[in-house]
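Sequence, please.
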Protein backbone atom coordinates (compact mmCIF):
# COMPACT_ATOMS: atom_id res chain seq x y z
CA UNK A 1 0.00 0.00 0.00
CA UNK A 2 1.11 3.50 -0.74
CA UNK A 3 0.45 6.45 1.52
CA UNK A 4 0.54 10.04 0.35
CA UNK A 5 0.43 13.14 2.55
CA UNK A 6 -0.78 16.37 1.02
CA UNK A 7 -0.29 19.72 2.74
CA UNK A 8 -2.90 22.45 2.23
CA UNK A 9 -3.21 26.03 3.45
CA UNK A 10 -6.99 25.91 3.83
CA UNK A 11 -9.46 23.29 4.97
CA UNK A 12 -11.74 24.04 2.03
CA UNK A 13 -9.01 22.88 -0.38
CA UNK A 14 -8.96 19.52 1.44
CA UNK A 15 -12.74 19.25 1.14
CA UNK A 16 -12.65 20.15 -2.56
CA UNK A 17 -10.08 17.41 -3.27
CA UNK A 18 -12.09 14.82 -1.33
CA UNK A 19 -15.28 15.78 -3.21
CA UNK A 20 -13.34 15.35 -6.44
CA UNK A 21 -12.23 11.86 -5.31
CA UNK A 22 -15.82 11.01 -4.42
CA UNK A 23 -17.11 12.30 -7.75
CA UNK A 24 -14.62 10.17 -9.68
CA UNK A 25 -15.32 7.08 -7.47
CA UNK A 26 -11.70 6.79 -6.34
CA UNK A 27 -11.08 3.69 -4.19
CA UNK A 28 -9.09 4.60 -1.07
CA UNK A 29 -8.60 2.48 2.03
CA UNK A 30 -7.89 5.35 4.39
CA UNK A 31 -8.42 9.10 4.28
CA UNK A 32 -7.53 11.16 7.32
CA UNK A 33 -7.56 14.93 7.53
CA UNK A 34 -5.05 16.09 10.12
CA UNK A 35 -6.11 19.38 11.62
CA UNK A 36 -3.62 21.98 12.79
CA UNK A 37 -3.26 22.95 16.44
CA UNK A 38 -6.47 24.22 17.99
CA UNK A 39 -5.35 27.86 18.22
CA UNK A 40 -4.68 27.96 14.46
CA UNK A 41 -8.22 26.86 13.51
CA UNK A 42 -10.65 29.67 12.69
CA UNK A 43 -14.36 29.56 13.63
CA UNK A 44 -15.25 29.25 9.92
CA UNK A 45 -13.01 26.19 9.64
CA UNK A 46 -14.60 24.65 12.74
CA UNK A 47 -18.03 25.08 11.15
CA UNK A 48 -16.76 23.59 7.87
CA UNK A 49 -15.30 20.63 9.81
CA UNK A 50 -18.70 19.95 11.37
CA UNK A 51 -20.40 20.06 7.97
CA UNK A 52 -17.89 17.71 6.33
CA UNK A 53 -17.18 15.26 9.16
CA UNK A 54 -18.63 12.33 7.17
CA UNK A 55 -16.33 12.98 4.21
CA UNK A 56 -13.18 11.86 6.05
CA UNK A 57 -11.89 11.15 9.51
CA UNK A 58 -10.57 14.36 11.11
CA UNK A 59 -7.82 13.81 13.68
CA UNK A 60 -5.20 15.71 15.64
CA UNK A 61 -1.64 14.88 14.66
CA UNK A 62 -1.03 13.16 18.02
CA UNK A 63 -3.64 10.51 17.13
CA UNK A 64 -2.24 9.56 13.72
CA UNK A 65 0.00 6.52 14.03
CA UNK A 66 2.15 7.15 10.98
CA UNK A 67 2.99 10.69 12.17
CA UNK A 68 3.50 9.86 15.87
CA UNK A 69 6.31 7.35 16.56
CA UNK A 70 5.52 7.25 20.30
CA UNK A 71 1.93 6.23 19.60
CA UNK A 72 3.17 3.60 17.14
CA UNK A 73 5.51 2.19 19.78
CA UNK A 74 2.73 2.07 22.38
CA UNK A 75 0.35 0.24 20.04
CA UNK A 76 3.00 -2.30 19.02
CA UNK A 77 3.92 -2.93 22.66
CA UNK A 78 0.27 -3.61 23.50
CA UNK A 79 -0.09 -6.10 20.63
CA UNK A 80 3.17 -7.85 21.47
CA UNK A 81 2.25 -8.00 25.16
CA UNK A 82 -1.01 -9.78 24.33
CA UNK A 83 1.02 -12.55 22.64
CA UNK A 84 4.20 -12.74 24.67
CA UNK A 85 2.71 -12.77 28.17
CA UNK A 86 0.51 -15.88 27.69
CA UNK A 87 3.29 -17.72 25.88
CA UNK A 88 5.74 -16.71 28.61
CA UNK A 89 3.34 -18.06 31.22
CA UNK A 90 3.02 -21.37 29.41
CA UNK A 91 6.80 -21.58 28.88
CA UNK A 92 7.40 -20.83 32.56
CA UNK A 93 4.93 -23.53 33.62
CA UNK A 94 6.50 -26.02 31.25
CA UNK A 95 10.07 -25.26 32.29
CA UNK A 96 9.24 -25.41 36.01
CA UNK A 97 7.39 -28.69 35.53
CA UNK A 98 10.13 -30.26 33.37
CA UNK A 99 13.05 -29.33 35.58
CA UNK A 100 11.26 -29.92 38.88
CA UNK A 101 13.53 -27.33 40.51
CA UNK A 102 12.69 -26.10 43.98
CA UNK A 103 14.06 -22.59 43.53
CA UNK A 104 11.42 -20.90 45.68
CA UNK A 105 11.24 -23.47 48.45
CA UNK A 106 12.25 -20.80 50.97
CA UNK A 107 8.78 -19.30 50.42
CA UNK A 108 7.22 -22.54 51.60
CA UNK A 109 5.73 -23.43 48.19
CA UNK A 110 4.83 -26.98 47.30
CA UNK A 111 5.44 -28.46 43.84
CA UNK A 112 2.29 -26.86 42.34
CA UNK A 113 3.22 -23.50 43.83
CA UNK A 114 6.71 -23.76 42.32
CA UNK A 115 5.22 -24.49 38.90
CA UNK A 116 2.78 -21.57 39.12
CA UNK A 117 5.50 -19.22 40.35
CA UNK A 118 7.62 -20.25 37.36
CA UNK A 119 4.66 -19.51 35.09
CA UNK A 120 4.29 -16.01 36.57
CA UNK A 121 7.99 -15.38 36.12
CA UNK A 122 7.63 -16.47 32.48
CA UNK A 123 4.70 -14.08 32.08
CA UNK A 124 6.82 -11.27 33.52
CA UNK A 125 9.59 -12.05 31.07
CA UNK A 126 7.02 -11.91 28.24
CA UNK A 127 6.00 -8.45 29.39
CA UNK A 128 9.62 -7.29 29.49
CA UNK A 129 10.16 -8.84 26.07
CA UNK A 130 7.27 -6.82 24.66
CA UNK A 131 8.81 -3.61 26.02
CA UNK A 132 12.25 -4.41 24.62
CA UNK A 133 10.91 -5.50 21.24
CA UNK A 134 8.65 -2.47 20.85
CA UNK A 135 11.52 -0.15 21.74
CA UNK A 136 13.23 -1.27 18.55
CA UNK A 137 10.91 1.13 16.73
CA UNK A 138 12.86 4.17 15.62
CA UNK A 139 11.48 7.06 17.65
CA UNK A 140 14.11 9.28 16.08
CA UNK A 141 12.03 9.12 12.90
CA UNK A 142 11.03 12.64 13.92
CA UNK A 143 13.82 14.01 11.73
CA UNK A 144 12.15 12.45 8.71
CA UNK A 145 8.68 13.76 9.52
CA UNK A 146 9.80 17.09 11.01
CA UNK A 147 8.77 19.14 7.92
CA UNK A 148 5.28 17.62 8.10
CA UNK A 149 4.98 18.37 11.82
CA UNK A 150 6.23 21.91 11.32
CA UNK A 151 3.74 22.55 8.54
CA UNK A 152 0.95 21.31 10.81
CA UNK A 153 2.12 23.55 13.67
CA UNK A 154 2.15 26.52 11.30
CA UNK A 155 -1.57 26.02 10.71
CA UNK A 156 -1.57 23.93 7.55
CA UNK A 157 -3.97 21.04 6.98
CA UNK A 158 -2.74 17.58 6.07
CA UNK A 159 -4.55 14.85 4.19
CA UNK A 160 -3.25 11.34 4.64
CA UNK A 161 -4.41 9.15 1.74
CA UNK A 162 -3.82 5.40 1.53
CA UNK A 163 -4.76 3.34 -1.52
CA UNK A 164 -6.52 0.01 -1.50
CA UNK A 165 -4.54 -3.05 -2.47
CA UNK A 166 -4.69 -3.49 -6.22
CA UNK A 167 -5.55 0.16 -6.91
CA UNK A 168 -3.26 3.06 -7.69
CA UNK A 169 -3.53 6.41 -6.01
CA UNK A 170 -5.18 8.98 -8.30
CA UNK A 171 -1.93 10.73 -9.21
CA UNK A 172 -3.51 12.97 -11.85
CA UNK A 173 -6.01 14.36 -9.33
CA UNK A 174 -3.31 14.69 -6.68
CA UNK A 175 -1.06 16.63 -9.08
CA UNK A 176 -3.95 18.93 -10.06
CA UNK A 177 -4.75 19.72 -6.43
CA UNK A 178 -3.38 23.00 -5.25
CA UNK A 179 -1.51 21.48 -2.34
CA UNK A 180 1.66 23.11 -1.05
CA UNK A 181 3.53 19.83 -0.82
CA UNK A 182 3.05 16.19 -1.75
CA UNK A 183 4.92 13.58 0.28
CA UNK A 184 4.91 9.91 -0.78
CA UNK A 185 5.40 7.20 1.83
CA UNK A 186 5.64 3.62 0.57
CA UNK A 187 4.90 0.84 3.06
Amino acid sequence: MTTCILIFEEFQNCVNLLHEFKGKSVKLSKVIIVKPTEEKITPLQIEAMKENDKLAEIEAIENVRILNPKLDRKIRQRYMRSWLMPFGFIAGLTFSNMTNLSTFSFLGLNNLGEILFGGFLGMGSGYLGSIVASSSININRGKEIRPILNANKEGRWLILIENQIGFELPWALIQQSNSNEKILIEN
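The longest strand covers residues 28-35.
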